[in-house]
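Let us work through a complete example step by step.
Step 1: write down the sequence.
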Amino acid sequence: MPWYYEMFDFVGEEYFSVLNREKLRKAKKEVATIKTALALQPGQEILDLCCGVGRHTIPLAKAGYKVTGLDASAKLLEIAKRRAEAEGLKVEFLQGDMRAIPFKDRFDAVLNLWNSFGYLEDDEEHLRVLKSVAGALQPGGRFLLDILNRDWVVRNFQPGEEHREIGGVVEINRYQFDSAAGRDIMETTYIVDGVEREFTHSCRIYTLQELNLLLDMAGLKMCQAYGGFDLRPVSVEAKQLLVIAKKQS
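Step 2: predict the structure and record it as tokens.
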């Protein structure tokens, strides 16, 4: 079974509670950027694809949008649902595969944030994701993709090992980069209550040109691209790519 189906459930809820504290604070500012970059209008429908614990889903719902969160992890969705209920928000959370979004021509916008695009095994599978996104969007709907910038990784990658403890979980990360495959690889050992498991986190990272080609093949036209949530220009100095594409008629 692929790592992304097992790892999130294995490490447990406290791990994500600690890990996401700073990310939750950043999410509020990122949501403000999303609203501006996509020119979102009040009441529009948004799909947060690979929503995790609802870092962006929940503040978008609080801002008055009709938001659906979809993720493969039952554990992360359970946390997201509790967080939404605690805020008194009505958010639809669904467990599912990003290659098979169960909606047709529904959403004004689809978001895929924090490098979850790239988890799959090859470019054909990632193209399936983009075609699924296109199918879920209304005509003229917009897709926002947040992903590592391969040009930055190539210039800055340093192999190495990191040890840390998060929420009672011991985590040992060993970093690699496969330039031939274009994959950022992290081999991780987790120790939870004395139980040790190893996972290989492998993420395909793309250049802007590669993404443009895949988007076009999926029926999505790239409109804008930025070097992160501060909306700086794309460059080799920008660690992230924030790409906006529109569903073609």
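Step 3: interpret the result. The helical segments are 3-11, 13-37, 57-62, 74-86, 123-136, 150-156, 208-217.
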